[in-house]
Backbone:
């Protein structure tokens, strides 16, 4: 027994000595791989104020107990906001679920894509067939309040949560449009996002409407494009107006249908590395005369597609200047059910133009007419596209400095 006990104690002693020698060696500058890198050693000092504040909130804040989940989410939001990039943000579990539902094709709300621009919650685009579109909301409208709650300066996820809600409920929005401010009540609904719609117009012209770059959009485009081309149209109109974007890979797949072999976009990272996305020779609509409709609601993936078509001289752009979002985000799920969108790169058109905050300029600038209540609406942009494909003259009318 004594021998076994002595053997056990010697094993423990040697293990302890070995562990300490290994630790000291690991911290030595002579070690081939240090256990703790210099950057890691600096982290305790960097994070010290955070933990000091965390402790103060838990020990001195007057109303206890505090919500640790809310504090953690607030810390994440603050960290990402400090980057100064409106497209890098945290999504709560509720917002993450809503975002994934939207990309899959169904969600509940008013049906509008929003962004924060200089602290202003701004409509990028109302979605096709949505309550927001039926209520007359337009790209560029600023959402000032939702049910009396001020949205200006609020994180875009918080603002979206206030605007969103169960189908059948009503949200009252205070809208700023130019010099005008007005209130509109919108009944929320289930938004079914079939992202592609097509038809044959008069004069044997094909029309293809893409409202977002969702999970099924590439397959929907291929199916409906095949049906249109089987009718031997003389030209094709691709409508990207009010399309807020979506997945980059989806945009590349769709662009490949229209472009011959060559560059679609260049993804440029902060370290100088770049990735080129290229079209193959497998597209089914590489030769048909093509017009793309864009407006101030055409953003992100819409601009990738339209920019590639314009730079490659595959077709012409008609409409107004696009939104101007030239960065790429990745989508990461978190352990709490939430998620983060992190800007990882900027993207460039085939001619290496960066459209961020400037947008794409159309080849033919055609605005939509202002329509009084009850007046008949004429889609001047669509008509210009038809005229172009028929060989009729199209007059570009760029905005003046006052507009």
Residues:
């Amino acid at each position: 027994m004594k021998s076994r006990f002595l053997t056990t104690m010697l094993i423990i002693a040697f293990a302890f000595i070995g562990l300490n020698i290994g630790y000291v060696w690991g911290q030595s500058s002579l070690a081939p791989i240090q256990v703790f890198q210099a950057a890691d050693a600096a982290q305790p000092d960097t994070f010290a104020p955070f933990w000091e504040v965390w402790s103060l909130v838990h020990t001195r804040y007057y109303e206890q107990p505090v919500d640790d989940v809310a504090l953690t989410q607030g810390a994440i939001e603050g960290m990402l906001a400090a980057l100064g990039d409106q497209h890098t943000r945290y999504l709560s579990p509720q917002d993450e679920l809503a975002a994934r539902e939207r990309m899959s094709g169904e969600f509940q709300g008013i049906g509008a894509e929003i962004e924060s621009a200089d602290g202003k919650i701004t409509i990028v685009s109302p979605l096709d067939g949505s309550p927001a579109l039926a209520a007359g909301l337009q790209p560029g409208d600023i959402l000032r309040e939702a049910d009396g709650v001020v949205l200006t300066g609020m994180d875009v996820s918080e603002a979206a949560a206030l605007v969103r809600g169960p189908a059948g409920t009503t949200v009252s929005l205070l809208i700023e449009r130019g010099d005008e401010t007005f209130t509109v009540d919108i009944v929320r609904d289930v938004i079914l996002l079939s992202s592609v719609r097509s038809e044959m117009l008069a004069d044997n012209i094909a029309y293809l409407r893409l409202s977002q770059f969702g999970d099924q959009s590439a397959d929907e485009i291929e199916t409906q494009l095949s049906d249109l081309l089987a009718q031997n149209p003389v030209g094709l109109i691709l409508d990207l107006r009010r399309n807020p974007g979506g997945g980059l890979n989806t945009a590349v797949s769709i662009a490949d249908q229209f472009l011959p072999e060559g560059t679609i976009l260049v993804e440029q990272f902060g370290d100088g590395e770049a990735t080129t996305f290229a079209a193959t020779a497998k597209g089914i609509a590489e030769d048909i005369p093509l017009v793309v409709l864009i407006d101030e609601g055409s953003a992100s993936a819409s601009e990738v597609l339209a920019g590639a078509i314009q730079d490659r001289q595959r077709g012409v752009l008609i409409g107004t200047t696009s939104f101007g979002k030239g960065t790429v985000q990745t989508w990461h799920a978190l352990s709490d059910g939430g998620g983060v969108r992190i800007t990882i790169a900027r993207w460039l058109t085939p001619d290496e133009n960066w459209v961020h905050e400037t947008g794409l300029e159309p080849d033919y600038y055609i605005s939509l007419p202002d329509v009084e209540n009850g007046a008949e609406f004429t889609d001047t942009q669509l008509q210009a596209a038809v005229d172009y494909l028929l060989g009729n003259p199209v007059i570009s009318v760029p905005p003046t400095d006052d507009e």
